[in-house]
């Protein structure tokens, strides 16, 4: 379903969200520091509130334009929650990258913010390509759905896959071609002098690592969001609002991330559910001649957006509550 929201609303939304993102980036570059728990919590509260207000505005504007505002609002909230949960999963990887390269605390904010900008660029490219391809080739829903089910199974089987800490091919190549000094101090950001010779700090390697990881995560998150809405506007705004608070979430969770034992399981279930929904949707649109002679297949009815939202909310709630219960049991046993 195409959003067909008024052009003025879409342009204004992009302008406001980009302005907030640039302001956040300006604060990070102008005043590098280690955010306190209170500061991180306040920023996350602001971004979550912003997403809720934005979703309600979509409902109001869509209704005024003669559209189904409730449906579009549900699509936005389901998409935003999915992307936010996937972004929270990114924190696991970011923590490992920062630890692997021993990034000074004051430098982490700037690198995380740059990583978020890279993620938005990659996702914008995938969204534009994905929307165009899905509009022309509905059979791609089969591929997206099957891929998400595969990712869900892999995540269930390899819960500790983020812990290898090994260099990828790009990082290994950069270490060979660039003069990168393996160590840095709090006062060093991008360059350092050693015995009168200029070296790059590992910051460039960290940035490339974040960019590579962002690219990989985009391959998972974009098919997932297209399983909820095919509106490029909703897809992109869901991604922007989900990524905006990622930096603060990183500092707020910190070591607490390891206590969310079942978050990965919950995210895997959500991906599997959306993958099933995509395949079911593809069957309803079926244009492949070797499946039921090219005729539509209706094994079960299309899964409504409100049900998707309920499944996502309940899954995340159960994953978090089960994790907290396990942590409490482990602490009591000590």
Please indicate the percent range of residues in DSSP E strands (runs of 2 or more).
Answer: under 5%
Shape: globular
- Rg estimate, integer Å: 21 Å
**What is the H/E string?**
HHHHHHEEHHHHH
Determine the mean pLDDT. 76
Major sheet: size, sense and barrel closure?
Answer: 2 strands, antiparallel
Distance between the termini: 53 Å
Low-confidence stretches: 160-166
Number of helices: 11
Query: How many domains is the backbone divided into?
Result: 1
Indicate the multimeric state: single chain
Number of strands: 2
- How would you classify the helix and strand content by structural class? mainly alpha
Portion of residues within helices: over 70%
Strand order of the largest sheet: 1-2
Describe the fold and architecture.
- The protein has 334 residues and is mainly alpha-helical.
- It has one domain (7-160, 216-333).
- Helices cover 72% and strands 2% of the residues.
- It has eleven helices and two strands; from the N terminus they run H-H-H-H-H-H-E-E-H-H-H-H-H.
- It has helices spanning 7-30, 37-64, 69-100, 105-136, 140-157, 169-177, 203-226, 232-244, 246-253, 263-284, 305-333; strands at 191-194, 197-200.
- Strands 1-2 form a two-stranded antiparallel ribbon.
- A hairpin with a 2-residue loop joins strand 1 and strand 2 (197-200).
- Helix 2 (37-64) packs antiparallel against helix 3 (69-100).
Q: Which helices and strands occur, and which strands form pairs?
A:
Layout: H1 7-30, H2 37-64, H3 69-100, H4 105-136, H5 140-157, H6 169-177, E1 191-194, E2 197-200, H7 203-226, H8 232-244, H9 246-253, H10 263-284, H11 305-333
Antiparallel strand pairs: 1-2
Helix pairs in contact: 1-4, 1-8, 2-3, 2-8, 2-9, 3-7, 3-8, 3-9, 3-10, 3-11, 4-7, 4-8, 5-10, 7-10, 10-11
